Amino acid sequence: MSLRVIGGGSDGPLLVLLHGLGASADVWHGVAEHWPGRWLAPDLPGHGGSDPLRRYSFGAMAAAVAAELADEVGDQPVVVLGHSLGGVLALTMATGWFGVPVTSAIGLGIKVRWSAEELAKAAELAARPARTFAGRDEAVARALRVAGLSSPEFADSLVRKEDDGWRPAVDQAAFGVGAPDLPGLLAAARADVVLAAGEHDPMCPEAHLAELQAQHVILPGLGHNAHVEDPAAVARLLP
């Protein structure tokens, strides 16, 4: 499979940026501007300009990202910053199971608790056929809502033109990825791990983070997409 990857910088430490469900690599431009070295950000499988997977799991997605970045990463130590779904993948790659030499992993806005009702709703959404819209603006509005974003600056990477109209670029099946085993991933991590969330993130309340990591970080005044709201604040989480 093939993933769309954007990046910048030339020398210095390597940063890999992993977006959340429904978003694309483009949401990281603001954070990347604060990184002193080289950075890479893929569209996750089934998102943006990347190919879909036959079946979505955290392991399969992490393996696809690792394979795509293998030539760029080599043996160079890597810092991985991921948001929401991307945060789970950052922790998954920090285990070392996928051959990426991660030294630091930051998980931002990861949903810690999943109810049976939430998982059932996600599975139902994953089984639905993709909705197609007659106009681009309608598809953009839907894609932004799915990703929890408000700025149309990301629109080009979030929608696709099909023969019969426009639709969000995200593969519906990706919504069925399930709930992560966060305690297991933290126990298996071979890298320094930081968990963080915006103060007003309804998907990742501080009390939930505290159950996983005593020394977590709360970003004052920010919500779920803290990396878009205040890139500089999120960049300060980086080592």
From TrEMBL:
One of its GO terms (molecular function) is hydrolase activity. InterPro entries: AB_hydrolase_1, AB_hydrolase_fold, AB_hydrolase_sf. GO terms for cellular component: membrane. It comes from the Bacteria. Pfam families: Abhydrolase_6. Signal peptide: none annotated. Residues 15-236 form the AB hydrolase-1 domain. Keywords: Hydrolase. The keyword Cytoplasm does not apply. This is Pimeloyl-ACP methyl ester carboxylesterase. It comes from Labedaea rhizosphaerae.
